[in-house]
């Protein structure tokens, strides 16, 4: 499969150009100071720096045997931090994670920092507190998720670290640099229960960890509702918005092998919390199979994407929805219906939501890479 980067007009949804074939990894990030994109290859052993205005690949950095698993920009500098694994002993029995800074202007790589804990063979998920000069790593899930704060200049751990026996969700770490806090979304997956139809296992649960990025200590952990979490930070309001997928049930279907399928069993939820101490501000009910959340800090809006009714592993879906929420009051302003693709090929057609604060658009993307722009005033 050939991956590539697409550039869209957020006003119309038109595809302006495609570029950097072979570098369309979901780990794509933007350096906010230069506007350049940092895009790893699918196998994670090369990184391209791309100018999205001209569509040109400025340079390609080869990582050798190392494998990239994490990217995070420093909002205060011209650096993007790379993290990954692949640093193994000659017999391949002990592997360590690593982090390294990349200057997107010159392509220069900073010192390579090898991480301490060999029980977690890569850097996991990565975020940057530029004010403190610290990196926050959420590493797991093989030995439980380890949340670590690391000095960006030396690679040494700050504080004692925190271990949680929950795995991290997609894009799970957000930084509030002004408050010196990292917000980490955690998730414990349910294990299918082979019982009578309509019964299920211990439900999947989401939780939120608040970490002091300056001292490297856990402030508190907040349990949330059922389902995999998605996370967005409202830095202007000092709030964190967490959307959870919602409850599911497991049914045995009459097939020769008695397959167990997973079905949506209730609406997801949007949890709004204080980013500094984790105090719950409000809870808002959203749609079925809530998969993504984005914040428009300029307009004071929160956009929550829901895929609609889902049956796995077949991926049968109904109509999805984007719920527009007033960030200040929690009132639901609008629900925008998002039709599935004609072949109903994927349960996550409304999974990716990204708000543009200056234009009030939400990007809705499906498993078939069909991108649409929904105007949500």
Structure report:
The protein is mostly beta strands and 377 residues long. The protein is 0% helix and 53% strand. It has strands at residues 5-8, 15-19, 29-30, 37-40, 46-51, 56-62, 67-73, 79-88, 95-103, 113-114, 125-129, 134-139, 145-151, 157-164, 167-176, 181-188, 205-212, 217-226, 229-234, 239-244, 248-252, 260-264, 267-274, 280-288, 290-296, 301-306, 310-312, 316-317, 320-326, 332-338, 355-356, 361-365, 371-375. A hairpin with a 6-residue loop joins strand 8 and strand 9 (95-103).
Radius of gyration: 21 Å
**Overall mean confidence score, pLDDT:** 76
Helix content: under 10%
Q: What's the total helix number?
A: 0
* Percent in strands: over 45%
Shape: globular
- Give me the side-by-side strand order of the main sheet: 3-4-5-6
Structural class by secondary-structure content: mainly beta
The N- and C-terminal alpha carbons lie at a distance of 37 Å
Query: What composes the largest sheet?
Result: 4 strands, antiparallel
Query: pLDDT under 50 segments (min length 5)?
Result: 192-201, 341-377
Number of DSSP E strands: 33
Give keywords.
single chain; disordered C terminus; four-stranded antiparallel β-sheet; 53% strand; 377 residues
Topology readout:
Layout lengths: L4 E4 L6 E5 L9 E2 L6 E4 L5 E6 L4 E7 L4 E7 L5 E10 L6 E9 L9 E2 L10 E5 L4 E6 L5 E7 L5 E8 L2 E10 L4 E8 L16 E8 L4 E10 L2 E6 L4 E6 L3 E5 L7 E5 L2 E8 L5 E9 L1 E7 L4 E6 L3 E3 L3 E2 L2 E7 L5 E7 L16 E2 L4 E5 L5 E5 L2
Antiparallel strand pairs: 1-2, 3-4, 4-5, 5-6, 7-8, 8-9, 9-10, 11-12, 12-13, 13-14, 15-16, 16-17, 17-18, 19-20, 20-23, 21-22, 22-27, 23-24, 25-26, 26-29, 27-28, 29-30, 31-32, 32-33
